Amino acid sequence: MENGEVPENANDNCPGTRSETAGKAESCQGCPNQEACATAPKGPDPDLVAIAERMATVKHKILVLSGKGGVGKSTFSAQLSFALASMDFQVGLLDIDICGPSIPKMLGLEGQDIHQSNLGWSPVYVESNLGVMSIGFMLTNPDDAVIWRGPRKNGLIKQFLKDVYWGELDFLVVDAPPGTSDEHISIAQCLQVCGIDGAIIITTPQQVSLIDVRKEVSFCKKLGLPVLGVVENMSGLCQRIADLKFVKMTETGEERDMTQWAMEYLKEKAPELLGLVASTEVFDSSSGGALRMCQEMGVPFLGKVPLDPQLCKAAEEGRSCFEDQKCGISAPALKRIIDKLLENPGLSTLAIDNGA
Amino acid sequence: MIGLLRASSRIGGIRGFSSKGGLRLEGVEDIIVVASGKGGVGKSTTAVNLAVALAKRCQLKVGLLDADIYGPSVPTMMKIHDKPEVTEDKKMVPIEMYGVKCISMGFLVEKDAPIVWRGPMVMNALEKLTRGVDWGSLDVLVVDMPPGTGDAQISMTQRLQLSGALIVSTPQDVALIDARRGARMFSKVEVPVSS
């Protein structure tokens, strides 16, 4: 791991601001920070001490990661938070995706502001036991792009950890951006002082996704971060037959809507079909999907979640899928995964205490 | 309080980004980036298919640069598993497949090895993958960007003269919100945007 951060205006081959040779190495000659580095105190980061103090009231910290983008990390984080909150736990949800914060949208908190109190920044509360923090609340215009390099993002993540008054929490769920970059290194470094319970890794069954997720598993192993389990999202498209649209492809390549005809035909000839759920594979999982990857890499497999349009809708409207009658396909799958997660030795005593 | 105010007044600020002063890449006529604020929308798929179509159908000389350091998808999509050769003047030779000259971080590392790098190292890597490569003479260089509006995007717009940006999205709101941010970022640095 690197010795402190490399400032933007540093020379090439900068040893790092907290390295023993900072300011004194050959590559430091002529660097504008040379004097500052040579005279700066080296030793533990004082911010880490402040973070450890804040995190002392948080019992369990879980990171939600993926090497790949767009696999459903934010959706899973949001639904996991809803589920834990419904089990009467005190839950905090921290969104460290600085460039693409999706959490405010997914919890129906768009347009909300962060308030200051003498105890620190106050998270935005969805329910009395579910507090949320994201850069999305700090943007004046939701279309504003956050064009920041690594060091600034690290600064904000540290602020989220040391300046936010989370209070007594049973679970802090951290939704990370895709990849293995600044945000991930920072959150791992900052929280490792006070102990992270582990990481949940989300993937889809596609090869390109699994390749990136394998890297993420290696990243966790490299940092000594326990992998609580892998979730295979978008496992198969499930849609009730009654909700389907039917089209006919003409010779000219045009689509003609045949839904009304098809529905009437089915009602007349095979009404029992209308009560069924159609399931089809969207991403080719002939290579074994996430389950095989877990067996190969020696990490637990938590389960599969189907690609349910109703779950997408619930996520976009900021609702919990467990309270939605229409998410009859995805909600039970998610529930099973969360129950399996809570069976984990590090987390299970808490569940027993709460009578869950 | 001060920290919060400072942060919120700077968010969305530009601070001297300019693509007009950006440098041209020798031998390359036009550079198109395929980007999106959001991950998993199909940037790599679009970039790869665009590059191959321009090469095969439009008979152009095309290069494909995979700028996603953390999750390079181009090696899988173009079925390339070799390591690139190096010329006498220490430049990498892009690997040609389906008529497109490709270069990616994925060629240089082991399959499961994660790239656990902070921003400045990413900047260096991108510099090597653009200027440290012997592209030869190209009509178009298609660049497959990683998701977000961070180090990689800033480096590309500052160091290269981009002819245009193609923004990819899916119909969901969460994807469109991030795609709008991506488009706005390129508009701010005066790169023409198409979506």
Can you describe what's shown?
- The complex is a heterodimer of chains A (356) and B (195).
- Chain A has 356 residues and is an alpha/beta fold.
- Chain A has helices at residues 34-39, 46-55, 73-86, 103-106, 150-162, 182-192, 207-223, 259-269, 289-297, 309-316, 330-342, 345-353; strands at residues 58-65, 91-95, 115-117, 120-122, 124-127, 130-134, 169-175, 198-203, 227-232, 237-240, 247-249, 255-257, 277-280, 301-304.
- In chain A, a hairpin with a 2-residue loop joins strand 3 (115-117) and strand 4 (120-122).
- In chain B, helix 4 (119-131) packs across helix 5.
- The longest helix of chain B is centred in the last third of the chain and has 16 residues, at 173-188.
- Residues 1-21 of chain B have low confidence and may be disordered.
- The chains are: A alpha/beta (356), B alpha/beta (195).
- At the A-B interface, helix 5, helix 6, helix 7 and helix 10 of A face helix 1, helix 4, helix 5 and helix 6 of B.
Output the keywords:
heterodimer; A: 356 residues; alpha/beta; Rossmann fold; 2 domains; 8-stranded mixed beta sheet; 12 helices; 35% helix; 18% strand; disordered C terminus; B: 195 residues; 7-stranded mixed beta sheet; disordered N terminus
